[in-house]
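User: As part of a screening pipeline, I want to sanity-check one entry by hand. Below is the sequence and the SMILES for flavin-adenine dinucleotide. Please return the complex as structure tokens so I can compare it with the automated output.
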Amino acid sequence: MTAFPGMTYPSGPQDNAPKQSKTKKVKTTKVVNGIEQEVEIEVEDVAGPEWGPRAALKVLDKELIRVDAPVKVSGRAVYTHDVRVPGMAWARLLLAPQPATKITKLDFSACAKVPGYLGHVVIEAEETRWLGQPVAAVAGATSEAAEDALRAIVLEYEALPFVLDRDSALKPDAPKVSRRGNQSKPQTRGDEAKAKAAIEAAPHKASGTYSVPVVHHACLETHGAVVDWRGGEEATVYCSSQHTFGFAGDAAKTLDLKSSAVTGIVEHMGGGFGSKFGFGQEGDAAAKLSKLLQRPVHLMLTRKDEFLMGGNRSGSHLELAGGMDANGALVGFTARAHKQGGIGDGSLSGLPYIYKCAEAWTEVSGVRTNMDSSRAMRAPGHPQASFATESLLDELAYAAGLDLVAVRKANLEDKVWHRQLDRVAKEIGWFEHPHRTQPGTAKAELCTGIGFAISRWGGGGGPACEVEVAIERDGSVTSSVGSQDLGTGVRTYVAAIPAEEFGLPLSAVVARIGSTRLGNANGSGGSVTTASLAPAVKDAAYNARRAFAEVLAPLLGCTAAEVLFADGGVQTSAPGGKRLTWKQACAALPEAGLRAKGVWAAHLQGNGIHGAQAAKVEVDTLTGRVRVLHMVCMQDVGLCLNRAATRSQINGGMVQALGYALLEERVVDTALGLQLNPCLEDYKLPHSLEIPKMTVILDDEDTRGVIGVSEAPIVPGGAAIANAIHNACGARIRSLPCTPDKVLIALGKVS
Amino acid sequence: MKSFTLINPTTLDGALEALVQAMDRRGRSKAALLAGGQDLLTELKEHLAEPEKVVNLKGVPGLATIQVDGALLRIGALASIEAIESHPIIRERAPALAEAAATIASPQIRSVGTIGGNLCQRPRCWYYRLEEAKCIKKGGAECFSYSGRNKYNAIFGGGPSYIVHPSDLATVLTTLDAQVVILSPKGTQTLPIERFFTLPSEGSVLKETVLKPDEIVVEVQVPLDALSQYSAWSKFKERASYDWALSSVCVAVVKDGSTVKRARVTLGGVAPIPWRVPAVEALLVGKSLDEATIAAACEEALRGAEPLSENGYKIPLTKGLLTRVLRSLA
Ligand SMILES: Cc1cc2nc3c(=O)[nH]c(=O)nc-3n(C[C@H](O)[C@H](O)[C@H](O)COP(=O)(O)OP(=O)(O)OC[C@H]3O[C@@H](n4cnc5c(N)ncnc54)[C@H](O)[C@@H]3O)c2cc1C
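Assistant: Here is the complex for your manual check:
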């Protein structure tokens, strides 16, 4: 599987912050044990922008309503799906109806009889190797014509043998999924004999086979593009993408244009979660059709296409064993894991997940099947590893009769996790809970349980973004960069950072994003966006402010260093000095206004996220229903640019984790070679009534710069919920999702 | 979807006429009746139905009324599920019907979906809904769920198809002895709802009801009596926000003090038709609804269940629901 562009997996959180060369002391507010104190801290002494003390911030670190909220909730926001350009054709893909085929006939002659049919391109004429692999694309004058033409294509094939599940793929006589075979070379770490001996010698042991299903990103906006080319030297390409600068080049190649002649646009984006890098086969087909027809083409995947070819989070089969000493230390651990990433190799984070272990041995390989390749999905490999590790840890803790929170702390050196675990335990009511060292039993009809799990992520950035901040003579301010906003709130902080810098309200700054005509930006994956982009925005705003101060100093009768930007105006720092409103100040600018650029600065960002989550569930032992009552997440986030958006990101992660824990799974018929639930009715996402009370605690003891927040919160929830089910009633479910049938089976109620 | 001609009759006769005209000599129809469209549109989009004509019933006035004639509740075929859910007399005198309506789909779908469409909707089995799977319900040779994935399929009354009937209203209406009023070229006929639904082994495996292509459900009649008054409903959804029943239970009882005089018990989500369990009804008569009776009733209700490979859980689940419903009526 491909990693995120520019992403790094940190080894240990919080210690990855850039090394400080020279330091200076500044006063700031610090929260210690929930109490705010003014303290002096050391920061880097670099000339240049600083976020400044948190307590002094007026816009950042506050509850901001997203600047694009009105257009989004009113339906005016234009997503790629909504793009309509003159003369646009509509296109659809023909997908392989079976997991492996040898194509014997691909005949488009009947398409010509369909009114409105415009043309087609062939993507694969010979052999297909996975269910849903694109074979051809057709275009019509309307979406209906495109669909009719699609159905007029005659595709005949010889069905080749295939495998859709791990067990079948590993059989010696299994059909070969690819030339590389059905299993990737196992990667091993540690000493197997030593790890086994450590487990053997441990007073408490547990082992089990854990599995997680293949699940889907289920982006509300499907993949796809609108290629606006009508012949000529230039083109505009709209794409539902996580990387504005990542697809225009591909489109240019297909259209035979210079890459600078193609403008990429991602104005609004309906979710990607890791699945939307690059132009994809759908984008490429749209460009080919556009070239063929010399007119714009709209090609967005249908929901069913999306399920079959839009990517997925790999499943995993994990055989784990562990040994624990009397103090709760994990002394031995072994894991044999098979990742299931379709024709790809899947992803799985290192095991045991986060917790230290003196003797650990792991062997990990990918098992291939004739399904689409997994793609990065929000914290790739982490939720899988978390579920297995945290489940085993609970089983060991119970075997040792130890408190579930104490056991976790016993295996974590980093004290940040300790304080986070303590806090989520308190919030969820752990210390009043009756089952802290042994799970409850199913005697009662309704049982309540609590579970815990932790997460980590990098979230540091890198040099990639070029931001321009412009101040006009009429007082307007724009902050521009080509970056996309996947729904994480980028557009809002692109405006909020200059607003803070100039002492203006958020509404005084307009953010322009989502176009390759604006400054460069990296792709949004691996939570690298904020730590890459926010420092560059800050730098641009800082440079603009300094340049503006030079202009204003003579007017105010002071030096540039004495010009203060605050409360919607400018003034000198001298007492009783002159003050201008922002508009008056801007009137002093030359006609062209003022423009300043900004680039990344390492000292404005940090790296290394910790998180802890607790879930409280109610299990109905008569019916197997699991209701999540409460989820609590505590996470360090560095400087929080927008508390509302940050909480939303964390809530969203918890909701996705809840879906993983209780509902979501790709269901296939391994004999027929079909996915049975390729629609949002049968692929069960959590909806409003599934959502529990959710508490987000931002760890304000973290004084670092900005860090990407959003991968970590999706990691622990699945494990925490599964652990809570066990804690409630003793039903240990080792395979997600924990659906009612599995709960009833685990309770011994199904004969 | 395939293109079709939309016909908008303004009278029932006009609708019937349009249906009759769309029949071929062998009695096959080229038309589909459209009510709220919540199911039919999906059928059209997924190419499960490809009619040449769609006859829109919504232009026919007077079909959406809900009225009480003495002890008879008369619900027009176009009455929305939402209207049933919020109707004060239904809530008071046939509470299970209003409760069941409230558990159907989402508020949006309930505001558009109709009772006629709800009774006539097609199954939700994965295989049936997937165009590529040429299952027995679509004229194929096999019910793939039998040897394939069958978590949501039938544990009673299966074979040769193992669908479960998706209608929640049907489960309640069966319990309440409802009648279905059907208009055909021969006139109007009133049918007990139990005779409206057919097992795949009895009627055509391609259909779920006795309804012919030139027949229209015009009304559903429910006696408002002591039985309907004391009725209760429980539906288990895997996803609370909206989902079909993994299993559901409707019970109505007439009691004298704590002693049951009459009882009706129907299970939903477990069979190709609403699954009445007369043996349980008989068992309950003359008893009070204590825990021992309830336990015996649960055993009886699930006796003879034939689970498939992945739906054995429906047995304890249904017992659990029945336990709760009976307790609520004790
Ligand atoms: C996401 C979703 C979830 C749902 N969940 C549930 C649920 O939990 N429980 C439940 O019971 N239902 C559920 N439904 C089904 C929903 O209630 C039905 O789709 C709806 O009641 C159908 O009514 P309609 O008026 O829209 O029918 P239409 O879609 O218009 O028609 C459905 C079928 O009935 C036929 N028909 C309609 N009216 C008549 C008539 N008067 N006479 C003869 N034939 C007729 C049509 O020809 C068509 O074949 C769900 C539907 C959806 C889409």
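Points to compare against the pipeline: Residues A 681; B 32-40, 57, 77, 81, 104-105, 109, 113-114, 116-118, 120-121, 166-169, 211, 216-217, 242, 244 surround flavin-adenine dinucleotide (CB under 6 Å). The first strand of chain A starts at residue 23 and ends at 32.
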